[in-house]
Amino acid sequence: MKESNPIEQLRNLCLNAKQFPAEVLDWIAVENLWSLWVPQKYGGLEFPFTAGLNKLKSLAKIDGSLGWTVTLCSGANFFIGNLHPVAIEEIFGKGQTQVCFGGSGGVFGSAEKQGDTYNISGKWHYATGASYLTHFTLNAKIIENGEALRNEDGSPMIRSFLLPKDKVEIVENWNTMGLKASVTHSFDVKEVIVDKKYSFLYNRVNLDYPIFKIPFSVFADLTLWVNYIGMAEHFLEEAGKLMAKERLIGLEAVLDAANGKVFDFAHAIEKSLQGQWVCNEDTIGQIHSEAVASVQHITKTILEYYPLLGVSASREDHQLNQIFRDYFTATQHHIFTK
Predict the structure, then answer these.
(1) Which of 6, 184, 263, 302 is deepest in the core (most CB within 10 A)?
(2) Rounded (5°) CA angle 88-93-95
(3) Are strands 199-200 and 158-164 parallel, antiparallel or unpaired?
(4) The CATH number of the domain covering residues in 6-81
């Protein structure tokens, strides 16, 4: 960053951007942020959990799209822990360029099992960072001999897959009011043959590193939660320029409580990573409930303050306006609308 204040430079570059400019993408690459959770052995930063959450929150405080995109894409790179060892070496081996996973959490297509390969077709929605990805992740129902396979409990059998970007067609349909630079487009896959080594399951881990002991649902809850907090902290910072800070103590208190809760959970999880047990079902449910309630409280508080900030906060070229649009676009993520 050329300016003495790189945070302000990043904010200015991201303001109302429909896609990150080269300077922002270059900065992400230099900082190696796509590989925040990837082990150092495979070229990643291998951040401890709490430190990683702090980093993601700081990025969201700089800009909503920046934090959101790095969170979702580094979160997809987290699947390195679930990949087949041969696939890991092929993709993250020495000499590889920047690796950036991303994709859809929905089940929008099918994968027909054909021996050691799968024939995949479908249209998947909401792939954050679509224009920046090197590989796309997707979930698909498994078909064999024309019939949908089922698990022992009768539910559809679903597996996750990893495809290089040249095997998918991006559908540029991300037309939301906020998080524009996250380019969360859809993508089409038409009869692409994928070897089984590029198939994986969320709950089956192949790399023996502490971070991969964290259940993915807990990882998703906490990494997204800090994004809402980071954007709200930016809102608080900018609002303090338009009204007396004493009037903002309500939002400040809500954010202090949110930070306390999320990092209490994170520290407890990090401590438990030294053993084999991390979270039982009750803890997983508690974390999700607390995260949803906290975000709802932040949302309600922002809505109470926004009408008091005047016309300036409604201008499209003002940071507060973008924060508002980014935050309320982010609240539509399915995890936090349940």
Answers:
(1) 184
(2) 155
(3) antiparallel
(4) 1.10.540.10
